[in-house]
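Q: Amino acid ABC transporter permease, please. Structure only.
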Amino acid sequence: MWHIIITSLPEMLVAMVQYTIPLAIIAFIFGLILAVITALIKFIEPSGNKLVKYPYMVIRAIFSFYVWLFRSTPLLVQLFIIFFGLPNIGVQLDPFIAAVIGFSLNTGAYASETIRSALLSVPQDQWDAAYTLGFSTPQTLMKIVLPQAVRIALPPLSNSFIGLFKDTSLASSITILEMFQVSQQITAKNFQPLLMYSLAAFLYAIICTLLSWLQHYLERRTSQYVKGSEA
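A: Structure for Amino acid ABC transporter permease:
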């Protein structure tokens, strides 16, 4: 048993460093950017000017449809459509690029609702106080509201990243040699599925535990000046 673990572990670690971790990080960054844009579009109320309001409402409807679509369909189906379906209309994507697109769009849809909820949780008094001091709406949003919303959204966004890291195992379904795919290939050679899949689960658990510790650290750092929080 130990011989199998010692010989298999380097291959799985290489796959994790080469594909699993970069895929999770890159997809989360792009997903977070998309989530912020989507949340702001759905959060900000358009002005009464019809020349601005109607185009803005169309844009908001498009982003609302995007969120509904990716929250209403399984991630695995989304990956299959992007990688196996798009070539039927002439769009051929590299497996890693397809995975980044799929995970980013899925993460962005879920995280946008987290960010929007965090923005809505900031009291209206904060806006009123900022306007009293002469801040414009963009200034109030960037300097007053968003910093508070970030602290509120940090725990659920951290959970989303941990979930995304685990979901990268689905990338094996579109031919990416990430850690789980490598464990499957090794299993096909040594016929030890329980051992190999348990080893993969152990490696996922280690990384997720480290991410959980980082989450708790960031929560303490961002809440250290909040009354009643732990230092």
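A: Brief note, in case it's useful. Helices lie at 2-43, 50-72, 75-85, 95-121, 124-132, 137-167, 179-190, 193-222.
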